[in-house]
């Protein structure tokens, strides 16, 4: 019964001495940066009711959540995400607040990884959410805050990839595929699985209709701002073109601020069909290739808790940052 007492679960780690110091220093530096820029801090419970995350548009599969029961038999989970509890707070404790709300946080999240591949199941995140603001200006504030946050902790060699969730949604809205096949298509695009995507498009060409060619090319639509012109030439879907204009406006504004050196565009970034509702972005370390930050606009999430409020934000993976040689 006690054979595991000298070990820790897969996907977790002990931090000793200098590792602890470095991690805490990063968290504190980010926290101070957020507070100095007008964000207010919240702390949410490590344990939440399962229902908080059992939503129509949440991107976390229930199989990846650590579950347990309270003494009343209700299902609890170890918090698998930081944004969703903040959405709960925005719709309840902060209902009727003066908007926009600028919120910051740091804390651990827990997600079960079937094939770990070096991934942790307990991850420390630090980030911000801007609640009650929409439009390009709000999106810019989120992205600029993300860039400045990384710079504040000494990370300079990184790249922000910009995407647009609505672009993919509008390309598939008239496609006659079941939910399972739509999710398969999304994963093939997201993972840039060119060969499997070609096969999928071939066997479903009657259902994909005129969108087959652009969907096959989506994983290749990454690079500089010129990618947007290439994408425009591949579709006449007005709503999809509007989504491309959104990314173009954001990119050009960031360019005027001298931040284009950190930017690229990836129209194959289609993380979850329903969760994100506009611009999305990820940051990668050029030194390690690791994802160190992700975020985007999620205007439909807080509505799941009863208040229809737009929002956008990002989270930084502190554990990947900690392993970065600054």
How much strand content do the residues show?
15-25%
Question: Major β-sheet, in short?
Answer: 9 strands, mixed
**Neighbour order of strands in the largest sheet:** 1-5-6-12-11-10-7-9-8
Mean pLDDT: 92
Quick one: overall form? globular
Oligomeric nature of the chains = single chain
Q: Which H/E pattern describes the elements?
A: HEEEEHEEHEHHHHHEHHEEEEH
| CATH architecture heading of the domain at 8-156 and 287-326 | 2-Layer Sandwich
Termini separation: 43 Å
Are there runs of 5+ residues with pLDDT below 50, and where? none
Features:
globular, alpha+beta, 12 strands, BirA Bifunctional Protein, domain 2
Description:
- With 326 residues, this protein is of the alpha+beta class.
- The protein has a domain at 8-156 and 287-326: BirA Bifunctional Protein, domain 2 (2-Layer Sandwich), CATH 3.30.930.
- Helix content is 36%, strand content 20%.
- It has helices spanning 18-36, 83-91, 136-152, 165-172, 179-190, 194-203, 205-208, 212-217, 226-232, 238-256, 318-322, and strands at residues 40-41, 47-49, 67-69, 75-78, 101-110, 122-131, 158-164, 222-223, 263-266, 279-285, 291-297, 311-317.
- The strands form two sheets. A nine-stranded mixed β-sheet has the order 1-5-6-12-11-10-7-9-8, with helices on both faces.
- Strand 10 and strand 11 (291-297) form a beta hairpin.
- Helix 3 (136-152) crosses helix 10 (238-256).
- The radius of gyration is 20 Å and the shape is globular.
- The mean pLDDT is 92.
What's the arrangement of secondary structure elements?
Elements: H1 18-36, E1 40-41, E2 47-49, E3 67-69, E4 75-78, H2 83-91, E5 101-110, E6 122-131, H3 136-152, E7 158-164, H4 165-172, H5 179-190, H6 194-203, H7 205-208, H8 212-217, E8 222-223, H9 226-232, H10 238-256, E9 263-266, E10 279-285, E11 291-297, E12 311-317, H11 318-322
Parallel strand pairs: 1-5, 7-9
Antiparallel strand pairs: 2-4, 3-4, 5-6, 6-12, 7-10, 8-9, 10-11, 11-12
Helix pairs in contact: 3-10, 4-10
